[in-house]
Structures are given as C-alpha cells and as structure tokens.
Specification:
With about 240 residues, this protein is α/β, with parallel strands linked by helices. It has two domains: about 180 residues, 2-enoyl-CoA Hydratase, Chain A, domain 1; about 45 residues, Lyase 2-enoyl-coa Hydratase, Chain  A, domain 2 (Orthogonal Bundle). The chain contains twelve helices and eight strands. Helix 6 crosses helix 7 and helix 10 runs antiparallel to helix 11. The chain binds coenzyme A (COA).
Length: about 240
C-alpha cells in the first residue's frame, strides 16, 4: 500500500490517516493477507503531520478528535507490516515507520523528528519508540537538534533493518514481505507479538510469554506441517491453522 499525496510530500492529513487506518484494518481482517508493505514514493515516505492542518486546529479540538489514538490501531494490527522508506521520513512519518514491524530503507532515506522547530514535540510515539530503538543519546540528538539521520546512520543505530540502493527500496520491501508471507502464519503472528513484548515488559515476563507462545505455536496444524515437511524434504504448505 502506497501513501499518495505527493504534492505535500505525503504529509499525514486527517483524511489520509483515516483512509490509511481503514485500509490497514481491511487488509488485517483478510486471512489471505500474510504481510503488508507500507510505502510512500521516491521523494518521501511522509514528511510528517500536515502542518497546515495543525496550524488551524486548537489543542482541545485535537484532544477531542482523538486523532493520535487512531495510531494505536496500526500498532495493534496482527499482520506483519513492513515500512518501505525512500526520501523524507520525518515527524509523524518517522513515527508511522516506527509503528511498523520493520523498516526497509533506500540509501536516500532521511529520518528525523523536527517537531521542536515548529514549537511542538512528537506525539505519536516519537520520544518513546525512537528512544527505545536507537537509545537516549541519538534520540536526544534527533529530537532536540532536528538532525536528520542518513539511511546508514539509521541502520547503524538499529532504526532500520535493511538499506538498499535507491532504485530497490520497494522491491526489497516486497521481497521481505514475500519471505514473511511464506512462513507459518500462526507462528509469524505469535513471534511478532512476542518480539513486541520485549519492548513492553520485563525480561522475565517476556521469556514467559515467549514460552507460552511457543507451546501455542506447537499446537498448530502449521507446526505439524512445517516439521513434517522438513523431514519429508518438501516445501511446507501452511494453512494458517
Ligand atoms: N505538512 C504539510 N505540507 C508539507 C509538509 C508537511 N509536513 N512537508 C512538506 N509539505 C509541502 C510543502 O509545504 C510544499 O508545498 P507547496 O509546494 O504547496 O509549497 C511541498 O510539500 C514540498 O515541500 P518543500 O518544502 O517545497 O520541499 P523541500 O524539498 O524544499 O523540503 C522538507 C522538504 C521535508 C525538508 C520540508 O518540506 C519540510 O521541512 N517539511 C516539514 C517537515 C516537518 O517539520 N515535519 C514534522 C511535522 S509535525
């Protein structure tokens, strides 16, 4: 799925976010969809929230509209979500990419949280998710100074999973998605949830969660199929059961 508001560098307007959340929910509800790629265009994944809209809205309107709460839907998707990033990935755009399960970036990608230049701060997880991913020092640099990270810096700091040549960002993201989609769907979902736990709980609780998730995966038909297919030297035919 590609964000398509190129004149505004895919700035995340209210309308765009509504459409995005609805489209993602529809895909998530479809059992046949085993991985989703979310991208922008070559020049921008997304250059942040729509600043024109933000300039017009009051704090209480923003609060009552529960605009940021909608983002939780994206984090709670079952289906793995791969961000395909080329060009600018700023502000809400960077937060959106961080809300995906992993990021594939073009060497042209630039990541930043420039909100303090506008007199505001990140509000959809930027101060929290970015810090957990890249650590305090880099997060402070990016958020306080407005410095943009290059793709290689983002790779070195753990923000992105892969960096590829300019022309390959979308193909590579699709390749990753196909790899993910080829695995056992029950196991993939359980594994995604377990990795997320690592960010949200203590190590002990995370390990317990992982163990239980393994037992659950083991009980699936997919596990029988995957283990048997290996011993029979054939490709597994997973049904997601
Ligand atoms: N919201 C609304 N419109 C935006 C936007 C945003 N976040 N980011 C870019 N645009 C619009 C610009 O206003 C411009 O529109 P125009 O052609 O009608 O004037 C168009 O997108 C192209 O942007 P422009 O600034 O001309 O491109 P550039 O290559 O010179 O600079 C950026 C690119 C990304 C550095 C610059 O657009 C920018 O700083 N954007 C804001 C980033 C930001 O602060 N994000 C956090 C928002 S909370």
């Amino acid at each position: 799925m590609l964000l398509n508001r190129p004149q505004q560098l895919n700035a995340l307007s209210d309308e765009l976010m509504d459409e995005l959340v609805t489209a993602l929910q529809d895909l998530d509800a479809d059992d046949a969809v085993r991985c989703i790629v979310l991208g922008g265009n070559e020049r921008a994944f997304a250059a942040g929230a729509d600043i024109g809209e933000l300039a017009r809205v009051s704090a209480i309107e923003l609060y009552y509209a529960r605009r940021i709460e909608r983002w939780d839907t994206i984090r709670n998707l079952w289906t793995p979500l791969v961000a395909a990033v080329s060009g600018y990935c700023l502000g809400g755009g960077c937060e959106l990419a961080l809300s995906c399960d992993l990021i594939v970036a073009s060497e042209s990608a630039r990541f930043g949280q420039p909100e303090t230049s506008l007199g505001i701060i990140p509000g959809a997880g930027g101060t929290q998710r970015l810090t957990r991913v890249v650590g305090k020092s880099v997060a402070m640099d990016v958020i306080l100074s407005g410095r943009l990270l290059t793709a290689d810096e983002a790779l070195a700091s753990g923000l992105v999973a892969r960096v590829v040549a300019k022309e390959a960002w979308l193909d590579e993201a699709k390749r990753v998605a196909r790899d993910i989609a080829s695995k056992g769907p029950v196991a993939t979902r359980l594994a995604k949830e377990a990795v997320d736990r690592a960010y949200e709980s203590t190590l002990q609780l995370g390990l317990e969660y992982e163990r239980r998730a393994l037992y659950l995966a083991f009980a699936s038909e997919d596990a029988r199929e995957g283990l048997t297919a290996f011993t029979e030297k054939r490709k597994a035919d997973f049904k997601g059961r």
